[in-house]
Design goal:
3 domains, 15 helices, alpha+beta, nine-stranded mixed sheet, 40% helix, Arc Repressor Mutant, subunit A, three-stranded antiparallel sheet
Length: 483
């Protein structure tokens, strides 16, 4: 029997604020342990929380970006559970009346529009961090760092609309791009600013029934998400095929072992004993303020991608990565404007420039080739001043030195040879130096023409006009007297 997975995600995104959600402590990453704490985020008796307005604004921006209905009023609740890194013994979150519901994320993938429903977006505070290793007595003790305690989060909960581990990873990537574009999250998964819990079950292919759900906690990379889901789908399918049953539980992804491992039995909502936080009044939003937030939203990646495809004529494979990154999108549009050839601009950015960035481990903000300079290089190629092969060498010199393409071409005499008489002499020498290839061509093996073109290009250091070289070679080869 074949099984299909049913997947839903719960994404926890740290909101970009300088202070925590209910106090003035800093949210900066990397500070010494327990240096960004106060009575409020430590849960000391008598310390009262005060809601951070900036966190509310970013939460609303998140909801708007995901097409959710933002509710006029929402309620903060206490979610009761006991962990060493949760000093109050409860987490302030939202449950029965969340900030926003009923959204949808639509994106183009492989020419098909995918649609994932967003069940809810709600605000909550983060817990602290338990440190289990790195100390001489880590074998017997756990250390606690409360710097993250009280950091503002939004939790984005999808409906179980995803049907493959790879699809879930792509969705998470799309969502990250939206959060970055909306300016609400820094996307830094290594630092814990963005992480994901995945709920997955399997069912017989073609069935509408839902299987027993397993939660995989704290996945902080797209690759880990896909690998964990892939393993869990195979594990659950094998259990059912062998006559076993899937137990509802929470599991962790063991990176080194390449498997999920059981953490605890899965709690239900009633296990948390939610109730409205008596120290926090309902969060009531002014409709005009929400409208202003909505009007201030920037162009989001999916809309930008579709615009790149229609306005600039880019194929989806180029438009997707260019649109997903705001800095890269800006670099592309400036290059396209300078080049007056958007498709060629995209080719250079996704090809040589991307390779250069990957090799150097650099971001788009660190490259030495400006959009204006890259656009000028494209114009030189389009004008026939230099060939594509020479342009690649010029690009590398531009990246190494920061010089303009015009200066490099002029200083090194790299302009394309388009003079028929000058090239004719090179063609004659090439034919004379390669009699075997000439003989093969005239015997009907016309594929040798490419070899001969390459020899001419090598002899001219790539400066010859390839179209003219082809024309002159074919004319000489097809003429019995051409040798």
């Amino acid at each position: 029997m074949s099984f299909e997975p049913v997947i839903g995600l719960e994404i926890h995104a740290q909101l970009l604020t300088e202070s925590k959600i209910f106090c003035g402590c800093s949210t900066a990453f990397g500070a010494p342990p327990n240096s960004h704490v106060c009575p409020v985020c430590l849960g000391l008796p008598g310390a009262l929380p005060v809601l951070n307005q900036r966190a509310v604004e970013h939460a609303v921006r998140t909801a708007v970006a995901l097409g959710c209905t933002v509710h006029e009023a929402s309620i903060f609740a206490r979610k009761n559970y006991f962990y060493p890194d949760l000093p109050k013994g409860y987490q302030i979150s939202q449950y029965e009346e969340p900030l926003a519901t009923d959204g949808c994320l639509e994106y183009l993938a492989g020419g098909t529009t995918r649609r994932v429903r967003i069940m809810r977006v709600h605000m909550e505070e983060d817990a602290g961090k338990s440190v289990h290793d790195g100390f001489p007595d880590s074998g017997s003790k756990t250390y606690l760092d409360f710097n993250r305690s009280g950091v503002p989060l939004v939790e984005i909960v999808t409906e179980p609309d995803l049907r493959a581990p790879s699809e879930a990873a792509r969705f998470f990537q799309r969502l990250r791009g939206i959060l970055l574009a909306a300016g609400v999250n820094d996307g830094n998964m290594e630092e814990g600013s963005l992480r994901c819990d995945a709920n997955v079950s399997v069912r017989p292919a073609g069935s509408d029934a839902l299987g027993v759900k397993v939660e995989i906690k704290n996945l902080n990379s797209f690759r880990f998400l896909e690998r964990a889901l892939d393993y869990e789908v195979r594990r659950q399918s094998a259990l059912l095929e062998g006559g076993g049953t899937v137990v509802q539980e929470t599991r962790l992804w063991d990176v080194a072992g390449g498997r999920t491992i059981s953490m605890r039995s899965k709690e239900e909502a009633h296990d948390y004993r939610y109730f409205p936080d008596p120290d926090l009044p309902p969060l009531v939003l002014d409709a005009e303020w929400v409208s202003r937030v909505r009007e201030s939203m920037p162009e989001l990646p999916e809309a930008r991608k579709r615009r790149f495809m229609t306005e600039h004529g880019l194929p989806e494979r180029d438009a997707t990565p260019l649109a997903d990154d705001q800095e890269l999108a800006t670099y592309f549009e400036e290059t396209a404007a300078a080049a007056k050839n958007p498709r060629a601009a995209a080719h250079w950015i996704m090809g040589p420039l991307a390779h250069r960035m990957k090799t150097a481990g650099a971001g788009i903000g660190e490259v030495t080739v400006t959009p204006a300079a890259l656009g000028a290089l494209v114009r030189l190629v389009d004008a026939g001043t230099i060939s594509n092969s020479v342009a690649r060498d010029v690009f590398e010199r531009m990246a190494d030195t920061g010089r303009s393409p015009e200066a490099i071409v002029e200083a090194e005499g790299l302009s394309q040879i388009g003079d028929s008489d000058e090239l004719q002499a090179v063609v004659r020498r090439t034919l004379a130096d390669n009699p075997a290839a000439v003989k093969k061509y005239r015997a009907g093996k016309t594929g040798t023409l490419g070899f001969l073109v390459g020899q001419v290009m090598r002899a001219t250091r790539g400066r010859a006009d390839p179209r003219l070289v082809n024309e002159l070679l074919k004319r000489a080869l097809d003429d019995p007297e051409g040798e």
